[in-house]
Every structure is written in structure tokens, then in C-alpha cells.
Amino acid sequence: MRRIAALLWLAVVCAAVLHVGLSVRHGLPLDSDLMALLPTEKLDGAVRQAEEAINARLSRRLIVLFGAADPALAKEAAEGLENRLREAGLLTPGSDIPDGDAIKRLGAAYFPARAGLLSQDDRRRLAEGHGEDLRDRALGQIFGFGGLGDGRLLARDPFFLFPAFLTGLPLPPSRVRLEEGRPVIEDKGLTWVGVTGMLTGDSTSLSVQKRFAQAFGTPPAGVRILRLGAIFYASAGAGSALALSTAIGGVSLLATALLLLAIFRSARPLLLGLLSIGVGLAVALSACLLVFGTLHVAAQLFGASLIGIAADYSLLYFAQIFSPAADARQRLRQVLAGITLGMATTVIGYLTLALSPFPGLRQVAMFSAVGLVAAYLTVILWFPRLDRLAAKPLAPRLIRAAGAVEAFWRGRGPLLLGLAALAVAAAGYRLLSIDDDVRHQQALAPDLTIQQADVQRLLGWAPSTQFFLVEGADDEQALQREEALAERLRPAVAAGALSGWIAPAGLVPSQARQASDRALVEERLIRPYLPDLSAKLGMPLTAPQAGPPLTLQAVLDSRAIALLPAMLIAPGRHVVLLQDAKDLAATARAADGLAGVRFVDPTGEISAVLAAYRERAVLLMAASLLLMAPLVAWRYGARGTLFVLGPPALAILLTPALLALIGLPFTFFTALGLVLALSIGVDYAVFCAEDGRLAPVTMLGVTLAMSTAVLSFGLLAVSDIEGMRTFGAAMLVAVPLAWAMAPLAALAHKRKR
Amino acid sequence: MKRLLSVLAVLAATAAHAQPQTLAEGQVIRGRFAQERHLQGFANPVKSEGHFLLAAGRGLLWVAEKPFPVTTAITAGGLTQAVGGKQTASFDAQRLPALARLYAAIGGALSGDWGALDADFQVQREGGGIRLLPRRADMTGAAIKSISLKVSRFVDEVEIERPNGDSDHILFTGQSLSDGPLSAEESAALSRDGR
Question: How far is CA A748 from CA A406, A494, B45, in A?
Fold first, then answer.
């Protein structure tokens, strides 16, 4: 019977491994979009499409500035880098800054439609009835120094409205001149020469990062360098995260292996423990791919940690080699109830995650529950067959230590500990702060942030990641809505909430706006002031000919404004880019009450996702405790339930307070750590409760489990990625707490059944 | 914009060249001008006259009196124009780097540094005159085809030809060099810094 079960299980595992193997061959369908974790009903296709388009543009943008007192030196460095990147096939030219040629094409596209094009300032003056200002400006341009007015232009645009419109276009400026296609800026005695373009390839790809680093090289001596682009962040981030996690992983693996080898004096417990976890991962992956078709990276990572708990079952089992139980069957019998109950409570805990509306958590629940059951089955079905270890005596020192623990828990220890815990909790919770800001959860290289700010200051162009999404029935309606938005943004700029914006309507006014501007010019300028201007100049002047109105397509076809295509997501769906938005709340308010206009803050959205997940995780922890209670009560009775679930619950309640005392905020990642710690803590309590006498071998098993958990998760507390660090810190505090209080559960006497 | 600064550069540089000593900080050239602009497509030239002031280290004031009062002030900060005492145009050098660059050339020229002008123009001497040809198409070339100057002690006459066929002819009279301080009005006009 057992033999058949073991063989059946082998067949299932083989099938799962085969399935995963085949899936991996085609590349695992992993999902890495954080937004995919959002509840389905919160997803908005239009917003996501716009975010992706803007993100694709911003994340591929690359600007490197070389600065030197000697312009030739800076130019040489820029030329060198540009050639190397081009030769490596990593750079396609492209810049937000229009060059002289683009300006000419722009003029050619706009000029025929000039009769309906007015700068904001000129429109205001005409609307306020100050047409004479524009007449005087024309006179000034003709009679003033050097003469700004051009004879041929005077004949076609007597009030020089067209140059005013062109200079008023919200184009990336302006402090920059282009020489041979490269931006050149003079600033504080240095000449900066830039390399601009789009990265070909994905900046998050490690191989692209490697090739890029090779081509990039080091700047020549005496040349300062400023870099802007996602690739630099990604390289720095990946570099440090990779180096550190490799180091942490290595240390943790080595320490765990040494610990287990030292205690068991055999490699078998270690190898079999790894086998059970490996089986758990493979079966879980296969099941998730079958059910969801895809797997989110976050679900996989977190799920894998959750399955890691299965190591506890192996450890509890192998601790039995120090008991008098002679053979494998007996060893299993000793721990079967404990690990079964531990598995059941943990699976209940994980399955509560599936109750949430978040697809991400549902995947985590499925992944970890299946994995845990698989690891459990591996332990109970295979271990007795693979375990060839002879029984060993436990070192007297360990026996004495276990005795001391037992004495502590049977005495006044728990009461004193409880009072101390209450005091700590009272102090800690007053200091507790919550942090959901996604920017705090990842490590941004600080020197790159400074360089980016310098680049943006030098170029005078700093697009924010936030934007407005403007939707209308068609492009015309969207443009009109952007014009309404502009009326709201103007005072926001004056108040300093942001320094500017670029809307498609700022580049191509709506047909309605062009028609009204044409009428305005005719009525308030041409009719009252053209004869006057003619007379003052002593020459006959004619009104500008009304040509066909300007269209979005005509400007797109001119390819003069590199940013425009990126802002047109779909017909009737546009993006308004913001420049240097400092006060997000005030900027967002500009969209209040405007139909079809929405403020989109991608970083803010991710932060909102984190906040929602954090709250959800806390609620689910409470729910999972409630759901575990009936099972625990069935086994230990009502009083016993208190003793079994109390210690882990207390541990996770105390942890945020302790972390707050050392200044760590409560984040989504803290909550994740606590979810994991709760399951682990319940396992320890159940193991202790099942033993009842707190036998030294049980204490050894639980202690080994705690040590390995701290080694594998707690070490993350030294990570330089904030999210990892809070997760690790939560584990580092909560797991030992749960371990220290678990013997309390031995006071729950098993109900006789 | 570019072209008027080029003219300014030339004017300043030539003044410095003609003087035995270089124009020093605080020194001022004052004089009168008469300008004729020949515009393509218009039969009659546009005429204006007035006075100007070039202050080393400060900038240029170009004040047309007839037929309309038009004041143009150019400083390191930018350019402003006022008609009848009311500002009609303003360009910030920050937004137009060409302005800043040419202003730097003027600064160089004012202190007798011909190299500053040399970067943008090819300088040819023809008898009593000087002819300037822009070196590059991107900067001044788009605005100026050539500039011819007649120089005695100061610049007496300037002829500017544009690529589009327009041309300007400027006659200077009554120029004088002084260390004199600027009047409050002149000082105010030059301190607006392109705003």
C-alpha cells in the first residue's frame, strides 16, 4: 500500500518535472508587470496602454553628457562613445531636441496654416482687445535694431504672428544648440557635448547591460560625465542586487549546510531536505502553469520562500534519528501527526490568500499550497524508504539545554515574558509608521539621481513620469479637452506646482481653436489695425491667406517633433507630458471636473498597489488564524487552541513594534514576512504541542528549523534593497520570537480521542 | 535675433579695432544712426533714425526716434524691445543660446580680442573697408550673407546683406568715446536683462 502510494507519487512528480521541463524549453511564461498583480476590476486598458507607451519611450531614452573646459576634448569623448555604441548596435539616433533641419520641416508644415495659429500670449492680447500691442510689436521689429522682420514674411504675415507662434511652441528647448546633431551646452566654464538616442534592446536584460558596459568604457581623463537613462539605473541596480543576493544566498546556503552536517554528521538529511523542496517547487510550478497559464515573477519568488517552510518537516523528521525509535517507519510515526497538522494549518493559512481579489496573491496561494503538499508527501512517502541512517545518541549538552528550556516554560517565565512583551508592544506601536512608497522599496543609485538632475538642469528639460491621459471620441475632441486642461495648468505653473507641460494640442491646436483664432485675428487685428500698419510703414500690406487648417497628421508627417508620436496613443487618446512636476496633488487637481482627462501617476499606482496588498496581507493573517482555529481546536480543545495559536500570533504582533523601535517602517514586505512567520510559528507550536513533554529531539528539530529559516530569510535584512531588508528584518525578529514562545504550546494537552 | 547680434558684434569689434587703445570696462561709445532697410517685395525702403549707446560690459541701446520711438536693449541676459515706452518683445538669452554665444563674442571683441569674432566670421580687408563673411551656415549664415563696413576712427557705414535678398544700410554720425557714466534712464534700460 505504502509502496504503491510512493510509486504513484513518483509518477506524479515525473510528470510535473516533464511538464515544467517542456515549458522551460519554450521560455517560462513569466509575468513581470507589477500592474498585473492589481485586482482585475481596477485595471484600465487605456491607462496601461498609455503607461506602457510612455514607459517604453522614457526607459529607452539615453543621454550622456561629456563636460570639459576644452570643447574639443568633450566633443572627442562624445564622438567616441557614440561610435562605440553604434558599432555595438546599441544606439539608434533620436533625440527630443529638434535640430535645425527638423525646425525647417516644422516651419514648412505649419506655415500654410498660419492664419489660424496664435501664440497663447497673442491670443490673450487679442481677446482682451489689445490689438494695438501686436501692431506696435510689428513696428518694433521693422524699425528696431537690426530688424527682426523679414521682407518676405512681412508680405505674408504682416503682424509677425507666425514667428511668435513658433517660438511659443512647447518644444524641448533651447539652452541647447546642436552641432553635427549633438547637443552642446555651455555652463559655468565647461562645454558639455551630448550623446543622445534610444537604446536598442531591453535595459533590464542582463546581456544588454553587459554589452552596454563594454561599449561604454571609461571616460577619458579630464572629462566629466553625466548620465541619464534607465540602463544606468538598471545596471547599477542589477549589479548591486545581484552581487548582494549572490553573497547572501551563498552565505546562507553554506551556513545551513554546515549546521546540518555538524548536527547530523551525514549529508543525507540535507540532500533529502533539498529533494523535498525541489519536488515541491516543480509540482507547484507545473500546477500553476496548468491553472493560470502564466506565473508572475513575484508569485514565484514569494511562493518559493513559502515552500521553503517544508524544510521544517524534514528537519523534524531527521531529529528523530536521535530518539530511541529504531527504524524509519517508527521515526515517521513519531512526527507524522505534527507535520500533518503543521502542513494542514499552513495550507489553510496560504489558501486564505486565495480569498483576496488580487490575482497575484491567488497565484501565491496556489503555488505555495500545492508546493507545500507536494513537499509533505515527499517527506511521508519517500523519506522512510530513502532514510538509511542509524539511530544516534543526542549530545548531553543539547539534552541539558532542552531541559533548561522546559523548566523555563513550566515556571514563571511565560508570565514575565508576556509582561515584557506588552511593554515593548506599547512602546513600539506608538512609533510605528507605514511606508508604501515604491521608490523606497528599491535601491536607486544616489549618484545617478544627482547626475540625472544635472542633465535635466543643463538641458532644461525634465519630463516627469506622471502624465495626463486625455480621451475623446476622436482626436479633435481630445485636442479640445487638452486646451481646456491647459487653462487649468497655466495657474498651476504660475503657482509652481510644475514647470510646464507638452500636450499634442500645444503643438497642433484643435480645429475649433484654429477657427476661433482665425476669426479673432480677422476681427480684432486685421480689420482694425492692418490699414493703420500699412499707413505707418508707407507700403501696402495684405492679410495672411487662409490656407487649410493644420492637422495632426501633417505635423506627424513632417517628423519634426520626435515627442509627438509618443504622445498619441490611439485615435482620440493622447498623453500630456509634464515637466518637472513637483506638487503632484496640485497638478492632479487640474483634471478635476474635466471630462475625459485623468491624471496618471505610475509610481503612485504601484505604491497604491503595495498599500492595498499590505492591508490585505494583514487582514488575511487574521483570517487564516480564524480558519486554522477549528482544526487546532479539534485536536487540542479550546484551551489548547489558545496555547498553540497564541505564541505565533503574539510573535507577529510584537514584531512590527520591535521593528518600529529600531526605526523600521511597516511595509508590504513586512506584512509578507509576517505571513510567512505566522505559518512557521504555528508549525513550531504544533510540533511542541504534539510532543507535549518537550522532548529534547523535538526541541532540536524546532531549533534547527528556526536556525535554517533565519539563515535563509533573516540574512536578507542586510540587503541594500529596502523591500528585501524589511522582509528579512521581519523574519529575523518574528521567527526567533515564535520559536522562543513555541514551547508554551506544550502546555496544551492533547485531547484524548 | 541672430543677425542683429552679429551686427552688434561687428560694430563693437570694429570700434575696438579702430581705436589705438582697446575699449575698457566702463567706457561708452555714443552716436547717431540713420538706417534704411530694403525689403524684398516692397518698393520703398523702410527708414529710421535715432541714437545709440554701446557700453563695455553692459550692452547696447539702440533708440530709433523717427518715424516711431523704438528702443532695443541688448545685454548678456537677452534682448528687450519697447515701442512708445511699452515693451513689445523680450527674448531671454537662456532660451536662445545663440544670443549668449554672440554676446560672449562681443565681450571678447570689446576687450580687443579679435579671436572672438574670428570664430564666427571670415574677416577680409579691402582698402578702407572690411568685409565679414559668416564661417558657418548654422549660426549666423542663415541670417547674414555678408557685412561690409567703412571704418575711419569709428565705424562710419555698415551694409548688411541677407540671404533672402533683404539688405540694411546704416550710416553712423557723431560718435564719441567717453568714460562717462550712464544716465539713470540708460542704466535702467540696460539692466532689464532681457525680461
Answer: 14, 69, 109
Whose cell is 504550546? That residue is: A745
Question: In this complex, is the C-beta atom of A145 within 8 Å of any C-beta atom belonging to chain B?
Answer: yes
Tell me the domains of chain A and their CATH numbers.
Answer: 394-431+605-753 (1.20.1640.10)
Number of Cβ atoms within 10 Å of the Cβ of A444:
13
Task: Look at residue A153 and give its three-state secondary structure.
Answer: helix
Question: Tens digits of per-residue pLDDT, A186-204?
Answer: 777 788 888 888 888 776 6
Question: In the CATH scheme, what is the homologous superfamily, with its name and number, of domain B2-190?
Answer: Lipoprotein localisation LolA/LolB/LppX (2.50.20.10)
Calculate ∠ Cα B59-B63-B69, nearest 5°: 145
- The three-state secondary structure class of A171 is coil
Look at residue A648 and tell me whether its pLDDT is greater than 90. Answer: yes
Cα–Cα distance between A304 and B36 in angstroms, integer?
84
B44: nearest CA in chain A?
A: A539
Answer yes or no: do A152 and B41 touch at CB < 8 A. Answer: yes
The C-alpha torsion from A556 through A558 and A559 to A564, rounded to 10°, is: -30
Q: How far is CA A566 from the centre of its chain?
A: 22
Interatomic CA distance for residues A40 and A292, integer angstroms: 14
Out of B67, B88, B160, closest to residue A137 by CB: B88
Instruction: Return the amino acid letter for A420.
Output: A
> Would you call B72 an interface residue with chain A, using a CB distance cutoff of 8 Å?
yes
Alpha helices by DSSP H, listed for A600-721, are 602-661, 668-691, 696-712
B73 touching chain A per CB within 8 A? no
Q: What is the pLDDT of residues A413-453, one digit of tens each?
A: 777 887 888 888 888 888 888 877 766 655 556 677 777 77
Q: Do the chains contact at A539 and B67, CB–CB below 8 Å?
A: no
Residue type, A115: A
Q: Which residues of A touch B62 (CB under 8 A)?
A: 144-146
Q: DSSP states of A452-509 as a string?
A: HHHHHHHHT--EEEEEEEEE-SSHHHHHHHHHHHHHHHHHHHHTTS-SEEE-HHHHS-
User: How close does chain B come to A493, measured CA to CA in Å?
Assistant: 18
Residue A516 CA to residue A479 CA, distance in Å, equals 14
Interface of B with A in 86-115 (CB under 8 A): 86, 88-89, 94-98, 100-101
User: Which triple of cell numbers denotes residue A152?
Assistant: 518676405
Contact: B86, A136; criterion CB under 8 Å: yes
A301-326 burial, b at 16+ Cβ within 10 Å, e below that, comes to ebbbbbbbbbbbbbbbbbbbbbbebe
Q: Say if CB A744 and CB A647 are below 8 A apart.
A: yes
CA–CA separation, B9 and A742 (whole Å):
87
Per-position DSSP letters for A313-382, written without gaps between them = HHHHHHHGGGSS--SHHHHHHHHHHHHHHHHHHHHHHHHHHTTSS-HHHHHHHHHHHHHHHHHHHIIIII
Q: pLDDT tens digit string along A47-63?
A: 777 777 777 766 777 88
Q: For residue A514, give the H/E element and its range.
A: helix A511-521
ipTM computed for the complex = 0.80
Gap from A196 CA to chain B (nearest CA, Å): 19
CA atoms of A378 and A439, how far apart (whole Å): 41
SS3 A39: coil
Is the distance from CB of B68 to CB of A533 less than 8 angstroms?
Answer: no
* Residues in Cβ contact with A529 at an 8 Å cutoff, skipping those fewer than 6 apart: A131, A132, A134, A135, A159
Q: Smallest Cβ distance to B68: which of A139, A148, A150? A: A139
Mean pLDDT of all residues belonging to chain A: 82
pLDDT value at B111 more than 50: no
